[in-house]
Structure formats: structure tokens, C-alpha cells
Amino acid sequence: MLPKIKHIAVAGNIGAGKTTLSEKLAKHFHWEVHFESADDNPYLSDFYLDMRRWAFNLQIYFLNSRYQQVLDILNGEVTVIQDRTIYEDAYIFAPNLHEMGLMETRDFQNYFQLFKTMSSQIQPPDLLIYLKASIPTLVDHIQNRGRDYEGNMSLDYLKRLNKRYEDWISNYNEGRLLVINADEVDFINNPEDLGKVVNLVQAELHGLF
């Protein structure tokens, strides 16, 4: 009997289009979606007002919620597509905050040890889809959705994150990986481009069997 595909995850920088792609793929393949909990996150707006004060709290919140999501997926019976992964918190956002001097070294080390313990208890996604996007594309998407708390995000911050994403993806060996260039496909507005992405995902999933 073939193993059931349970966990597809979409990774990418802020504004890459993860949520939209997750929704569209879920609709096409009849999957459930687990979103990143931005709206009910009790730290996010505070974090954007005072990053140094709230960085550690925010990252712990994300780590815990993502870990819970993965446990639910692995223990459940349905196929789930997850909007952002536990790895992005640990390899991109937390180290970036630490490097920018917004998270104390002892806090970062404490956080990363907790991540290592948690990640040893779970499996990586069956397929990781990475949405690669240039800074102009990210800025365009962020401006279009108009979230208040993202309004004062700096280009430098986005650039730093993009560099970390590229480094992480180039060394990713946890499992199957599909890279989609969000600069070249407009799956939000163009049904033909969405069809291309669906075909790429379909081909990767067949490769898993």
C-alpha cells in the first residue's frame, strides 16, 4: 500500500504569496489548510512597535503554534497544506532578529535548543514548496494587502530575510522540494499561471509514490 501524503508546506518571505497559493492548491486538491495565525497572534502588533522587547516572545509563540500544527497533521487522517513551516522560524526569522541585535544571544540559544528538541519529534513535510520572490514583488504584494502593522517594514529587513531564505533553501535536504519563482508566475490573477503551478505540484506528488 502506498504511503499517504499528509503534509505539504509552503515557504517564502513576507508577501511572497504563501497564503494565496495554499488556498488555491487546497481548493484544487481538496486539502485542508493550516494558516499562519497572524490575526489572533497576541504579540504581533506589539512586536512591530517594539521589536527588541517582544522578539523572543513572538518567536516562541510561532514555534509553539507551528509545532502544534505539525503534530495535528501527523496525527490526523487528512492531507494538509501548511502556510509557512517550523524551519523558517528557526533558520530565518529568529537568527535574523538575533543578528539585528533585537534578540539576546542567550534567548536565541534557548530558542534554538527548544526548536531542535521539537523538530526531533516530528517529520519534515512530504513536499516543501518554496515561493521565491524578489524584493519588488514582495513590496508590491505587501502594499496591495495593506496590513497596518506591515506598513513600517524596512527594505533592509526584507532583504536580510530573502538572503536567509536563499541560504536555507540551497541547503535544504529534509525532503522533496519544489521552487516556484513568484516573479515569473502570477497565480493570484492568472488562471493559466495557476494551472502551471498545479501541474508542477502534481508532478512532484506523483514522484512521492
* Molecular shape: globular
Strand content: 5-15%
Kindly report the oligomeric state of this protein: single chain
Task: Give me the number of helical elements.
Answer: 8
Average pLDDT level: 91
Structure summary, number of beta strands: 5
Question: Any idea what the radius of gyration is?
Answer: 17 Å
Features:
5-stranded parallel sheet, about 55% helix, 5 strands, alpha/beta, 8 helices
Write the layout of secondary structure elements.
Blueprint: E1 7-12, H1 18-29, E2 32-34, H2 44-49, H3 51-75, E3 80-83, H4 86-99, H5 105-119, E4 127-132, H6 135-145, H7 155-170, E5 176-181, H8 191-208
Parallel strand pairs: 1-3, 1-4, 2-3, 4-5
Explain this structure to me?
It is globular, with a radius of gyration of 17 Å. It has eight helices and five strands. It has helices at 18-29, 44-49, 51-75, 86-99, 105-119, 135-145, 155-170, 191-208; strands at residues 7-12, 32-34, 80-83, 127-132, 176-181. The model has no long low-confidence stretch (mean pLDDT 91). Helix content is 56%, strand content 12%. It is α/β, with parallel strands linked by helices and 209 residues long.
